[in-house]
Design goal:
Blueprint: E1 3-14, E2 17-28, E3 32-36, H1 43-50, E4 58-63, E5 66-67, H2 73-82, E6 83-86, H3 98-109, H4 114-127, H5 143-155, E7 161-165, H6 173-188, E8 192-196, H7 200-206, E9 209-214, E10 217-222, H8 224-229, H9 234-244
Parallel strand pairs: 3-8, 3-9, 6-7, 7-8
Antiparallel strand pairs: 1-2, 1-4, 4-5, 9-10
Bound molecules: adenosine-5'-diphosphate and magnesium ion.
Adenosine-5'-diphosphate binds next to strand 2 and helix 1.
Length: 246
Amino acid sequence: MSPKLRIEGLQKRYGRLHVLRGVDLTVPAGAVISVIGPSGSGKSTLLRCVNRLEEADGGDILLDGQSIRELRGPALDLVRRRIGMVFQQFNLFPHRTVLDNVVLAQQVVNRTGRDEAVAAATDLLRQVGLTEKLDEYPGRLSGGQQQRVAIARALAMRPEVMLFDEVTSALDPELVTDVLDVMRELARQGMTMLVVTHEMSFARDVSDEVLFMDGGVVVERGDPATVFTAPAQERTARFLDRILNP
Ligand SMILES: Nc1ncnc2c1ncn2[C@@H]1O[C@H](COP(=O)(O)OP(=O)(O)O)[C@@H](O)[C@H]1O
Ligand SMILES: [Mg+2]
C-alpha cells in the first residue's frame, strides 16, 4: 500500500520542553494506525503538528508524498480539509442545531451550496446514527451523541485522512461503544485513520499497527497481536499492565 501520510523525524519543543524527539510514522492508504502511551508523552502534539495546528520544529510531514510542513495560505487551508480531526472535546456550536453544525462548516469552508450541504449532512448524521436528532441542540444530546456529531462534521469536509485524539476519553463508559462503532465502520469503509486512544480493545481489534509512545519517541511499534501479547520493550509491558489491570 502507498503511504497516504508519512511523518519523518518530527521534532517539537515548547520552550525548553522537548516534546517530540524524532517521531517516524507511516500511515498507508486505508490503514488504521493507533497510538497509545502515557499522558504527556506527546500524542496530542503529534496529531496537532500533522494537521498544522502546531508548527513542528524539525522533520517533515508528507501527504501523498508531498511535504505539507511549509505550506501557507490557501494551500494550507486545502491540506486542513484533506486531514480531518476530532478532539476529546466536541467543540460544537451550542446555539446551532445538530444539522446546522454539520452544514455550516461545509458552507463556510468548502463553499458548498445550502441544499447540497444539507443533503450531505443528513446522510452523514444517518451514518452516525443521529437521524432522530437533526433539529436538536448539542446541549440536549449525550456526550456520545455530541461526539458523533463532531465526527459527522469532520467527515463533511470529505477528508482523506482522519485524526482522532482520545475521542472517547470524556465520555461515560456506556457511551463509548457507540462512538467506537462509528469509528470501526469508518475503518471498514476504508478511511485512512491515525487514532490516539486509551481504548485498548479498539487498538487491538481495529488497527493495522500499534505504536507505543513515551517521552516524545516511539518506543515500540508492531502488529497489535504482538504488541499486546508479547511486547518487546519493558516500558510497553509496564504501560499495558497498568492500563489492562487497573
Ligand atoms: N501549548 C503547549 N505549551 C507548552 N507545553 C505544552 C503545550 N502543549 C503540550 N505541552 C506539553 O507537552 C507535553 C506533551 O503533551 P501532549 O502532546 O498533550 O501529550 P499527550 O497527548 O500524550 O498527553 C506535556 O508535557 C505538555 O504539558
Ligand atoms: Mg493528549
